[in-house]
Amino acid sequence: MACALYFKQELIPVKINRFTYDTPYGIDWFKEHNFTDDETEIIEKKRKEIFYNSSAYFQIILWPPVQDYFDEIELDLIFF
Description:
The protein starts with a helix and ends with a helix. It is built from 4 helices and no strands. By secondary structure, the chain is mainly alpha-helical. The chain is extended, with a radius of gyration of 16 Å.
C-alpha cells in the first residue's frame, strides 16, 4: 500500500493470505536497524507528504463523552 501511495497507483492487485502476522515497519523499525536520524527524518517527512497529497489525512470530531481520553486518542492517531 505504501508503494501504491508513493507511485500514485489508483488500482492495486491484491492476494489475500489467510495467515496473520505482525509487520512492525513503523519508524521504530528503521531506528532499530541503524538508520541515521537524518534518514529517519527523511522517511517521516516523505510519509507525511504522501499521506497529505493522497488525501489519506482526514478530519475527525471527538465528542465530549471521550474528553478524558483526548490525549490518548490523539497520540494513537499521530503514530498510526
